[in-house]
Amino acid sequence: MSTAFTMVWTGVGILVGVALTLGVRPLVTVAPAASNATRLTAVLLTALAFGALAWRFGHQFDLLPYSVLAAIGVALGVIDVLEQRLPSVLVYSGVALVGGLLATSAILYSRGPDFLRALVGMAVIAVFYLALALVSGGGLGAGDVKLGGLLGLALGWLGWSALVTATVLGWFAAALMWLLLRATRRRPQGSLVPMGPFLLLGALITITVVPT
Length: 212
What we know:
Structural class: mainly alpha
Order of helices and strands: HHHHHHHH
Low-confidence stretches: none
Number of strands: 0
Radius of gyration: 17 Å
Number of helices: 8
Shape: globular
Mean pLDDT: 89
Distance between the termini: 17 Å
Largest sheet: none
Strand content: under 5%
C-alpha cells in the first residue's frame, strides 16, 4: 500500500488516540491515568497500530473493523496495566462495533461463511477462557474472558490459523514477561501479570504481520 495512505491513516490514529484518552478518562481512577506520559503513550500506540493496519489492509473494508479493534484495544491495554481490569463497557462496545462492521463486510462482499466463523471463534475463545478462569482460581478474570470473545470474533474472521496463532503469541508473551519480572525480582511472588495487553499484542502482530 502507498506510503501516503499509510501516513494519512497514521494521522487518523493520532486523532482517534487523542479522542479516546479524553473519552475513557472517567473509566480510570488511578493517578497515573492523568499523567501526560500515559496519554502520550496511548496516542502513539494508537497511531502505530493504525499505520500498521493501513500497511496490511490498504483500502480494503477490513481496515475499518480492525482499526476500531486497535483503538479500543489500546485503551483496554492501558487501563489493564494501570488498574488490572478491563472495563466491560469498552469490551462490549468493541464487540458491537467490530461485529457490526464485519457483518456489513459479509453483506457487501458475500463473506457469510467468514462471519459465521468469526461468531464461532468468539464463542470458542470465550468458553475456553471461562474454563481457564474457573480452574485457575482467579488467575484469569472476567474481563479477560470478555476480551477473549472480542478477539475471537476479530481473529475468527481471518481464519482458524490466525485465531490459534494470536492466542499462542499472547500467552507466550505474557509468560516471558512473568519470567522476566520474577528473574529481576520486580514483581512479588504470587502476583499476577495483567493478560489483556499481551492478548491484544498477540492479536495485533497476527493481524498485521502473520500471513492468513
